[in-house]
Amino acid sequence: MYAIVDIETTGGHASANGITEIAICIHNGNKVVQRYETLINPGKDIPVYIQALTGISNEMVQQAPTFKQVAYDIYQLLHGHVFVAHNVNFDHSFVKYHLAAAGYNLECNKLCTVRLSRKILPGMASYSLGKLCRQLSIGNSARHRAAGDADATAELFTLLLNSDNENHITEALKQRSKEKVLPPNLHRKFIDKLPSTPGVYYFHDNKGKVVYVGKAVNIRKRVDSHFSGNNSGAQRQEFMRHIHQVSYQECGTELMALLTEAVEIKRLWPKFNRSQKKLEFNFGLYTYEDQRGYIRIAVDKRRKYSTPVHTCSSLIEGRNLLARMMDTYNLCPKLCFIQINNDTCTSTNADKCACTGHEPADDYNQKVNQAIEGLKQALPTFAIRDEGRKDDEHSCILIEEGRLYGMGYVSHYFEANSISQLKNYLTPYPGNDYMHNMIISHAERYPWKKVDFGVMRELA
């Protein structure tokens, strides 16, 4: 038996919205044998635009039962039947959420008439319920009302049952089938071609635009995990509606996938990626020459279109680093903005300090340049060589003076004798602090993967 369901709601996601109307048609595989419908008081105002769409006003539901009052009847109708709806994950998420709030745990198989229509009736101009029914001459006297849409969906479902020559419905109902959890607009063919390897995957909208980028140790498994569960939040519901295609890029290792994900998020700026869009260090060491010709060093917030001589995660970290440079190279605390009052300079050579003009600018600037050069020399230059996408290649990531130069894949037999030679095989990428720290941390955890130029060697 099938329970064909349609609901009207106060909004797009269950966790913050209520149901205003529900209709259920019990279908025995041949025809509808029972109908149920009721208005529901959602316990909150119905937005004006939804009132205009559905025709259901606050006054109409004022005397209607709450969902909790009809939850038992709804549960009895749905329990043990296949839950069928047009874009089933939307209706199911609402009904399951509100049944759970009333103390009932709904566990049932699901069928989506959007997905089934795409398979059984290919080539339609649109698969929205209204347009699809018009193309198939299915009447609906109460569009955007639960009873009218449920009856139309029931007639559509009967047509699908009678037209299913390739047993798509039977396949979708199998326990291991993922059809019932996939987004309504995502064809199964995109899932079937995904590999079980490390890499990056892309979700595309109906225009082909990338709306989400993710990384995975196992691409197929990770993509499947996006569609499991019954999260009823607004973000997930909107996310699922926008997924029309999936593409992927294989990577040799999880680290390569992590770095590629970070690069792609910065390049594509996908709508549903929240993290990593602002994963940058907020402060840096900057230098400039003042009117007297002295080079001054300051810790300041990162500025767009400017390049600091060094980056740091906080103001305190930057000031501590600058203090160590002052001690090592005898720099002036006033010219480094560590001492900002008008008191006598706290330098050990205050009477001969640059801030008083006693130390010539050329002499002082030489010390500043030595400090900056020492900072750069302390930054690591190395490569990480690891497994590739195929047996005959290795992945390779190059860090030059603490910054990502690039990454790519080299032959299993390739040996680099110079940094310039290696660069010929790598693609340069714009790194950021998140990526640099990730690579350096990886090298510390797996020192056998870290190699110096001249001793690049094959992995055992």
Which descriptors apply to this entry?
elongated, disordered C terminus, 460 residues, GIY-YIG endonuclease, alpha+beta, single chain, Nucleotidyltransferase, domain 5
Plain-language structure description:
The protein has about 450 residues and is of the alpha+beta class. It is built from 16 helices and 16 strands. Residues about 455-460 have low confidence and may be disordered. DNA polymerase III is a complex, multichain enzyme responsible for most of the replicative synthesis in bacteria. The epsilon subunit contain the editing function and is a proofreading 3'-5' exonuclease. Keywords: Exonuclease, Hydrolase, Nuclease. GO terms for molecular function: 3'-5' exonuclease activity; DNA binding; DNA-directed DNA polymerase activity. This is Exonuclease.
Kindly summarize this structure in a few lines.
The protein is 35% helix and 21% strand. The protein is of the alpha+beta class and 460 residues long.
